Amino acid sequence: MSFPKDFLWGAASAAAQIEGAWDEDGRCPSIWDVAGDHIENGQTCHTACDHYHRYKEDVALMKELGLKSYRFSISWGRIIPEKGRINPKGIEFYRNLISELRAAGIEPLVTLYHWDLPLWVHEEGGWPDPKIIDYYLEYVRAAVDAFSDQVQYWMTFNEPSVFIMLSYAVGTFAPFQKDIEACMEALRNMLLAHGKAVRLIRETARTKPVIGLAMAATTYIPDSEDEEGLKDAAEKSFLSQVGEGSNSLYMDPIALGKASPILSQKLSEEDLKIISEPMDFVGVNVYQPSNPLLNKEGYDTEKLPKTMLDWVIDGRCLYWTIRQYWERYHLPVMVTENGMANPDEVGADGCVHDEIRRTFLHDFLQGVSRAVDEGIPVLGYQHWSIMDNFEWCSGYGPRFGLIHIDYETQKRTIKDSARYYAEIIRTNGEAL
């Protein structure tokens, strides 16, 4: 297993899912703080993992595991809690976190937006309103000004297909709206905000930036590896459709400067020039293949294990995601999320024996290794997630973490899978 010496072995999180301290030190509420009855068992993210107060302990655990990188998001509402006002306490928290990571030898990978839209921005119209582009750029500028002396890697957005489609068309994620026209306006505004943010970061960052975004990749595993099978799989992976799993609807304008027929009337040639500002990499978030949806008879899910969320575990899909993205967009790839949910419990021996996650890591990382061996530029792998956390509308039931969280006591327990991952990192993949 030959991984590059500078391969970014890491793990990921999101502010709304781990930080807590939802109303402390000047932070304003986000749309997820007021999600109310939409969350399983009436739970909230108000405390979550209390990372805001325990970040030093958490970074120490990351260091113990040997992480080379840590992908986290900044809470927009912690930085700009109201129109036109920067919150010094919010800046201070993230500067302290980044400094702690640097001191531990861990590269910070910053996601600027991971779904926690400030409530005041939502009340001004949210993503469907074009005013949001300037609001977002104001926030990006504040973050770059504050952190770019210590941050090189930036991601503009996490999974736009989720916070656009599921939030404004399907209505299953905050702010829980069902308006297809508003959804398409939100999509246009997000694309323009992305392109303008890439240029802003490039022009103003104090450290030469490496810029991308993280996509919710939907991957069709080829039925065969002959020419016809590969072509068919790539076409199915990049279907241009309005839905959570549309890779090309977002990435074609961003990486190719081309709009799908669905978007062609929304985007002018000038828009596409702005949107396609050159990036340095694309992040892929991969959990399961799309074969069960697109090939129900030809793909036997009964023979495959599943997570507690009933997601199929098939490690091949990570290799094919990386390959298909590279062949279509010719951008270096970073695995920005990959993981599984399990109802992990601390046993009588004080340990968490999550053998299924260990197997998951082995199988999926075999796919990354294959991609690297074939010469595809893979920058790193960020496991989702560093710790159990608030899983959006599912609340605290699904546990994705390498580190177990007791939500009553906030005790952290390193799981068996994390020990295995630490050995993979220590040997730079040789332990696979």
> What share of residues is helical?
40-55%
Main beta sheet, described? Answer: 8 strands, parallel, barrel
Looking across the biggest beta sheet, what order are the strands in? 1-2-3-4-5-6-7-8
What are the low-pLDDT stretches, counting only 5+ consecutive residues below 50?
A: none
- Gyration radius, rounded: 20 Å
Question: Can you give keywords for this protein?
Answer:
432 residues; alpha/beta; TIM Barrel; eight-stranded parallel barrel; two-stranded antiparallel ribbon; 15 helices; 10 strands; 12% strand; globular
SSE layout and pairing:
Blueprint: E1 8-12, H1 15-18, H2 51-65, E2 69-73, H3 76-79, H4 88-103, E3 107-111, H5 119-123, H6 131-147, E4 153-158, H7 160-170, H8 180-204, E5 210-216, H9 227-237, H10 247-256, H11 269-275, E6 282-286, H12 291-294, H13 316-329, E7 333-338, H14 355-373, E8 378-384, E9 403-406, E10 411-414, H15 416-426
Parallel strand pairs: 1-2, 1-8, 2-3, 3-4, 4-5, 5-6, 6-7, 7-8
Antiparallel strand pairs: 9-10
Write structural notes for this entry.
The protein is an alpha/beta fold and 432 residues long. The chain has a single domain (8-426), classed as Glycosidases (TIM Barrel). Helices cover 40% and strands 12% of the residues. The chain has 15 helices and ten strands. It has an eight-stranded parallel barrel with strand order 1-2-3-4-5-6-7-8, surrounded by five helices. Strands 9-10 form a two-stranded antiparallel ribbon. Helix 2 runs parallel beside helix 4 (88-103), helix 13 runs parallel beside helix 14 and helix 14 (355-373) runs parallel beside helix 15 (416-426). The chain is globular. The mean pLDDT is 96.
